[in-house]
Amino acid sequence: MLTVHHLGKSQSERIVWLCEELEIRYELKRYARDAATMLAPSDYKALHGIGTAPVITDGDLVLAESGAVIDYIIARHGGGRLALKPDHPDFAQFLFWYHFANGTLQPSMGRNMILNRLRLPEDNPILTVTRARVDRAFDLVDARLREAEHLAGREFTSADIMTGFPLTTMRYFLPYDLKRCPNILRYLDRIGRRPAYRRAMEKGDPGMALLLT
């Protein structure tokens, strides 16, 4: 049985959303963050050696890393749906945006989040550079969504699922004003109206305000 181990307010929301979009059978196990540290509890960390979300189990398999988990579920349980094949005209765009989420956008946000906690002076050059990188990443997403309905192009794909977390829930940890990104705001409005997204968020993080604006 495929089991999604979901840590609240974490990247594992991607996996719940994926399963809902694919409409496959899965078991959801929810874990709350430690109230004092806001980190994963010890029983979640014990699931996999990396100690971070997401984690799935499928029979004897224990698998972590968002991209690996999404690829595995699509291939083994989803019949290849929500991934574009090499002969698709939007294949290259799909690959770029699928990997951009955890390769560029989220790491840039994460570095900025850590630097903010250091309470550096506003004119610190490292802080200035990291903030500029976050802005460039958001600008790139916004520019793409000015010309395409979804990140890969015409079709909703797992690239949208990968990118949803840094555009939304990640902003609980690094607030970011999206008023400067009107195309992202329109995109998130469309995402927020997807029934599978709504089901996933209600199951995984019931009562959490969705950062879609």
How would you describe the overall organization of this protein?
The chain has two domains: 81 residues, Glutaredoxin; 104 residues, Up-down Bundle (Glutathione S-transferase Yfyf (Class Pi), Chain A, domain 2). The protein has eight helices and four strands. β1, α1 and β2 form a beta-alpha-beta unit. The protein is globular and about 50 Å long. The termini are far apart. The mean pLDDT is 96.
List key phrases describing it.
alpha+beta, Glutathione S-transferase Yfyf (Class Pi), Chain A, domain 2, 213 residues, 8 helices, globular, four-stranded mixed beta sheet
SSE blueprint:
Layout: E1 2-7, H1 13-22, E2 27-31, H2 42-45, E3 55-58, E4 61-64, H3 66-76, H4 91-117, H5 125-147, H6 158-167, H7 182-192, H8 195-204
Parallel strand pairs: 1-2
Antiparallel strand pairs: 1-3, 3-4
**Overall SS class:** alpha+beta
Strand content: 5-15%
Terminal residue distance: 36 Å
The CATH class of the largest domain, by name, is Mainly Alpha
What is the annotated CATH architecture of the largest domain?
A: Up-down Bundle
Q: Globular, elongated, flat, extended or rod-shaped: what is the shape?
A: globular
- The number of E-state strands comes to 4
- Taking pLDDT < 50 over at least 5 consecutive residues as the criterion, the unreliable ranges are none
* CATH topological fold name of the largest domain: Glutathione S-transferase Yfyf (Class Pi), Chain A, domain 2
- Tell me the series of helices and strands, N- to C-terminal: EHEHEEHHHHHH
Number of domains: 2
Report the sheet with the most strands, covering strand number, pairing sense and barrel closure.
4 strands, mixed
Q: How large, in whole angstroms, is the Cα Rg?
A: 17 Å
Count of individual helical segments = 8
